[in-house]
Amino acid sequence: RNSPFGSFMLSQLPASEPGFQKFVEASGFNPRTDLQEILVATSGTPATPSDAAASVAPGKVASPPQMKGLILARGNFNVDKISALAKTDGKQGIQTYNGATLISDRKDASASAMAFLGPNLLVAGDPQMVKAAIDRRNQANTLDPQLVTKVNSLSASQDAWAVSIAPLSSLNAGAGADPMMQGALGGDIFKKITETSGGIKFGSLIQMTTELVAMDEKNATALGDVLRFLAGMVAMNSGSPKGAPPVLVTILQSLNVQTQGNVVSVTMSAPEDQVEGLIHSLQPAAKIGAKI
Q1: What angle (nearest 5°) sits at the alpha carbon of residue 74, between those of residues 71 and 79?
Q2: Three-point CA angle 101, 89, 126, nearest 5°
Q3: Phi and psi (nearest 5°) for 12?
C-alpha cells in the first residue's frame, strides 16, 4: 500500500463515489486504510455434484460444482457495525459460533458465510469450511511442512505471493469455470507442472519471480523453451493493431528463464512507471463527444 505502485492503484479506486462512501460510513470499514493482509487458500479439489445438490436451497437448481476455499483477512473491523449492515437485507443471520461472530444466509446453505474471530481477523467462504476454520483455530498446525516452509519464505520476502504443492491441472474449478481457463489448465504443459510458487516485490523497480517444478528434467527444459517462445511471439506481434502494447514488450525484454534439473525459474522486472503505463494502455479509451 505504501509503495509507489500501491499509491497508484489506490488512486484508481472511486474513493469519492457515493456508494463507496455510504458503505464506509455504514460498516465502519474502509478497505483503503483498514485492510492489512489477505490470504486465500484452497485444497484444489472441486466439490462433487452430490455436494452441490445437498447444499442447494429447496426449490432451486444446483449449480455446477465449484472449487471451494477460504479467504482470510487481517485488518480493523467494526464487527457491530458490519453485523448491523448485514441485517439490513433481511437474509443474513447473525450468531455466535464457538466464540466467533458468524454471518450467513439463513435460507441458502450454499451461499458464502463470513465470521469475525475478534476485531482484527475475518474468515469467509463456504459455510462448513468457515465453521471448520473456527473450530481448529486453537489447534496445532497440521499443514504440510513443505508448504509451511514455502509460505514463510515467500511471505517474508514478497509483497504478493502464491504457492501450490498441487499440480496446476488440479486447480481446474469444475464445470462452471471459464472454458478458456479449463482448456489452459488441462493442456499438456500444465499437466507436467507439479509445484508452483512465486511472488511480486513492489518498489521503484517491480520484481516478479516464479518457480515451476516439472515432473522431470526433460519436461522442465521443454517448459522453459515454451515460455521463451511465447514471450517472443508477444514481441513479434506488438506492431499489429491487436498486438501487445509496446510497453509490455519493453517489460518482457527483462524476462529471464533459467532451467536447473526439473526446476524452471522465471524472473522479470520493470520500473514502476512502466507498469503504470501498461495499466493505462489496457484501459478502454475515453470517448469524448461534443455538439457543434
Answers
A1: 95
A2: 50
A3: -85, -15
